Amino acid sequence: MSSIIDTVQVQSTEESLVDLFDITLPNGTIVHFVNGLENGEKNIYFSSKTLDTDSQSATYNKYPLNEYIAIPIEISDIETSSSGAANRPSLGMANIPILARALANNEDGTDDETTLQEVLIDEGISGNEDLLGSRVVVRKTFLSKTYRSTDNHPSSSPVEFPSQTYVLDRISSESSVIVQFELANPIDIEGVKLPSRIVVGKYCPWRYQGHFVENQENNASKDGGCSWPLDSNGRFFDVNNNVITKNISTISAWSNSATYTLGSKVKTTTNNHTQIWESLRAVPVNKNPEKQKSYWKRLDVCGKTLESCKIRFQGNNANNTLDTRRILPFGGFPGSRQFR
Length: 340
Prior knowledge:
Blueprint (H helix, E strand, L loop, with lengths): L1 H7 L8 E8 L5 E5 L9 E4 L17 E6 L2 E4 L13 E5 L7 E3 L8 E3 H7 L12 E8 L21 E11 L3 E7 L1 H4 L46 E2 L5 E3 L19 E6 L2 E7 L16 E3 L7 H8 L27
Parallel strand pairs: 2-4
Antiparallel strand pairs: 1-2, 1-9, 3-4, 5-6, 6-11, 7-8, 9-10, 10-11, 12-13, 14-15, 15-16
C-alpha cells in the first residue's frame, strides 16, 4: 500500500489505474473481469486477498493469482456522502448470456478452456435477471501491480486501493450487446437480513414469474418470486410499465418450424407462465426464444417498483383505475427507505 500512496502523491505519473471486478454468482461461483479491451489488452492476473494455507497446494504460503477476463465492463456514478442514503451506482457490462467469452479453468489461460456461457448454464443462469443478487467487489490498482502470467505466485499481499462492495439489484437497461445494472450499496441497506434476505426499500427482489403455482410435489420454484401472469386477464407490460398487449391471445405462439422477420412478436409458455419475445433480426427455423437470446429480446419484464406491481396485480383492462383491495406480492420493504 505504501508504494501506491507514494505514487499518487507525486504531481505526475505514468502509472495507469485498472478496475478489477470479482462477481460472486448467486450459487457461489466467483468470476473475475477487467475492462482491458480498449488498448488490445488480454486477460491479466491479480492476487487473491487470502493467503493459501493448504500445504498440499502448489501455491502454499503464497497468494494465488486469479485470471481476470478482459470484457467491456465499467462502473459509474459512485458518490460518497456523509449524510442521507448512499447513492446507487451503475454497472455496465457486456451482455454475457449472449456474448459468451472464453474463460480458462486452469492457470495458463490457454488449455482446457470452457466458455463462460457453460459456466452460467451450470449455475442455472440463462438470462441477466438470474444474475440479480450477485455480489460485486470492485478492486482498483495500478496496471504495473498486475501480472501477465502465473509463473510466479506472490508471497506478499496484493497492492491495491480499498475495495468497494455492491449487490446487483436491478436491470436498468439491456440490449443484445450491453446490459446496465443498478447496484445496491451495502451502506444504504445496512446489512439487515430477515433472515437471509437483504432489505432493499425501493425495489422488489422477487424473481419475475419465479413462483410456479402448481399442486404437484417438487414442482415449486426454489426462488422467491411472484405468480404473474396466472391471473393477468391477458394484460402484459414492459419494464417501463407500458402496455404490450391487453389480450395475450392476439400474440401467436412461437413455432420451431417458422421463420420470423425483424420486430416479430411471439409468446412462449412454461409451467403456465407466458413470456413475450420480439425478434432482434431475421430468425431462421428452430431458434427458441428462451435459449437463442442473440435472436430474441424479452419484452414482458417487470420494473421491480411498487408501481410495476400495482399496475399488474391491481389493474384491469377497462380503465386505468386500480383495485387496491387486491394484495400485492411486492417483495421490497418500502417502509425501510431512508429520508434526509
